[in-house]
């Protein structure tokens, strides 16, 4: 039996370690010399196919819910609360009395103004009667003046014909002058009566205006509902003295709600009343309510470059003024969008890429289909091999994003396979091992 003689440089190592080292050396030498060599297996990745589908362009925002009408009621004049006719939470109708205030002074002023109207009305009637009297006197004086004028003209002609004396003519002339004076006096009295009547009518108008003013003041002692709704918080009690700016109670109209939110100005051309919105309220357990846009602010915020948008929502159980809601605004549709999962995107600087998997003959990029045969520079073609799945880094342009999906504007075609998992193990133009296996499914998942 012959023992294996150890080389001198391995004499200090146990036989078992020496044997293992020699075996490993022979194995590595065989791999290097045989040309087949050991290679890392292709990385396992998950792929999906780019789908062509209808894409709804949605913009997500956060908005605050507002009641269609919400007002803090107050009084226009200082007052003392005398009656509170509703309680918090009551449903009231338009014009219903909610609260009364002490009104003694206002009612006294109304009565005084009413008395002033009566007095002014009596004066107007008296002056109108005086006008009638003076009109009759003026008419009588006018007739007398006309008669005396005709009589004077007749006597002047008779005097020319020597039928009457100078004395008789002078008497007619004196009578005419007296009649003319009486007529002028009657006209002056009539005009004075008309002036007094006009003044009486003006006084009556002032009395009526004073009455309306005091009646309005008396009306302010009653607080009425400006619209139908629900009584909110009450801020005063019986006997409280309230100032004009003090809040008395809140009234809310919850038949319709509005939600207000902002949209970037780049969407301005797509914004218009009537666009549908879906609002999700996390505070109500994820409850969703559908409505539509009814207002787009004509002014763009120059600092934030956003546009204020409001949408109307129908009344729904649980909705309350001030709730926060997640708004999904539908801006339009793309009928044939190319869509992939967002996790397939590989950003590099300002550019965006994806790994596209193709089933093809693999040709290492360094050899470009050829391999060096010897140090003399001779070349020989690579022998054809079986097709494998190869990853290719492909630049794409992306459009809209939503809920883990991305619209690809260019760089992909429907049906292209892209890698969505295992990207950290992938390099450009290297084989991969897709898992699951290739599929003919044209949906988002599969290959």
Short description:
This protein has helices at residues 15-34, 104-160, 166-219, and strands at 44-49, 51-73, 79-84, 91-92, 97-101, 222-224, 229-234, 241-242, 249-264, 276-281, 287-300, 306-314, 324-341, 346-348, 351-360, 370-372, 379-381, 388-402, 405-410, 417-421, 430-431, 433-434.
Tell me about this structure.
The chain is of the alpha+beta class. The chain has three domains: 42-54 and 337-434, conserved putative lor/sdh protein from methanococcus maripaludis s2 fold (Beta Barrel); 60-70 and 255-333, Efflux pump adaptor protein, beta barrel domain (Elongation Factor Tu (Ef-tu), domain 3, Beta Barrel); 103-220. Helix content is 29%, strand content 37%. The protein contains three helices and 22 strands. It has helices at residues 15-34, 104-160, 166-219, and strands at residues 44-49, 51-73, 79-84, 91-92, 97-101, 222-224, 229-234, 241-242, 249-264, 276-281, 287-300, 306-314, 324-341, 346-348, 351-360, 370-372, 379-381, 388-402, 405-410, 417-421, 430-431, 433-434. The strands form three sheets. It has a six-stranded antiparallel β-barrel with strand order 2-9-12-11-10-13. A four-stranded antiparallel sheet has the order 6-5-3-8, with no helix packed on it. It has a two-stranded antiparallel sheet with strand order 16-17. The longest helix has 57 residues, at 104-160. The protein is elongated.
